[in-house]
Amino acid sequence: xxxxxxxxxxxxxxxxxxxxxxxxxxxxxxxxxxxxxxxxxxxxxxxxxxxxxxxxxxxxxxxxxxxxxxxxxxxxxxxxxxxxxxxxxxxxxxxxxxxxxxxxxxxxxxxxxxxxxxxxxxxxxxxxxxxxxxxxxxxxxxxxxxxxxxxxxxxxxxxxxxxxxxxxxxxxxxxxxxxxxxxxxxxxxxxxxxxxxxxxxxxxxxxxxxxxx
Length: 213
Ligand code: PRP
Ligand code: URA
Prior knowledge:
Blueprint: E1 9-11, H1 15-25, H2 31-49, E2 55-62, E3 65-72, E4 76-82, H3 85-95, E5 100-101, E6 103-108, E7 115-121, E8 130-134, E9 137-138, H4 142-153, E10 159-162, E11 165-166, H5 168-177, E12 182-185, E13 187-188, E14 191-192, E15 198-199, H6 205-210
Helix pairs in contact: 1-2, 2-3
Bound molecules: 1-O-pyrophosphono-5-O-phosphono-alpha-D-ribofuranose (PRP) and uracil.
């Protein structure tokens, strides 16, 4: 699916992203390789997500003289959802080392699929920053919707989501609760199964990142 039926969804179809995503989906890919791929894909996708961020002029002296350049106008906050978001956030932080990092710990109850929040540490000035919420899997959207609720409670309003694989059901649920939030994903897959897993997806992202399967 190319995601064009949802105006707030950007599917990053760049071939370098898609080639890596294919290897990440492969069940034979081991933990070490999987973790490296997730970081690389996230970093590549962050280029696309930050494309429209405003800049302000900045002058520097090159060895040959004054040069007009620019810098990002606003500070950035990366908010990975623990655990699996950590695998992406490390890759993005290499690209945007000046970004603040907030953490939200959320896991799904495996029976009800309800999100359980167990940790919340966001920067005090997050409301003045552009926020990128990071989680590889957008399944039912329970986790991301809860994360965005918590971020909006701080007063933050510039919020984008970066994920790797999204289910149509999750996109619909996120749009219903947070219609103004833009979603960047590398794929929109077919559906959820009866345990709330994305089909074909890539399995349990946290387990594959941290070797806990
Ligand atoms: C996974 C994933 C998302 C969530 C997606 O986390 O990383 O956070 O499930 O599902 P949802 O859209 O239905 O909420 P999980 O609950 O497995 O926790 P973990 O990252 O600690 O493994
Ligand atoms: N969480 C995962 O890690 N994978 C899925 O497919 C759905 C939720």
